[in-house]
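Much of our argument rests on the idea that a fold can be written as discrete symbols. This step matters because it turns folding into a mapping between discrete strings. The record that follows shows the chain in one-letter code together with its fold in token form.
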Amino acid sequence: MTILVAIADDAARDRVLDTATELGTGLDRDLYIVHLVEQQTANPKARRIREEIRERTSDAAVVSTISVEYITHQGSRSATRTARELLDIAADVDITHIVMGHLSKGVVENITQGNTAFAVVDESTVPVTIVPVGGE
């Protein structure tokens, strides 16, 4: 049984990883950490993020697999497309829990781009932990 950890190159990344590590340790679950990218090949930035995650999780008391996954272009809003990719990964990897960050957006951004965290929560068949950006 595995926890899917969706990370981005944003302010929530470290908090998401810390939360997932605590959950994985407490629930005795492995972590499948995924960073979604829009390029088919991992660019230097994606490789750097993967290495930073590897370093950050190397001493954790939980087994972690780190993956960079390509987001296919399906014509939908970016948040909906990202949520669909995460849910597909969750189904393929036999995920029992999802941990992801959430950054509040303005009204216009929500209308034009959607909200990945809300879309995942709406469609997920497993528990989802949302880690907000900022605050303690």
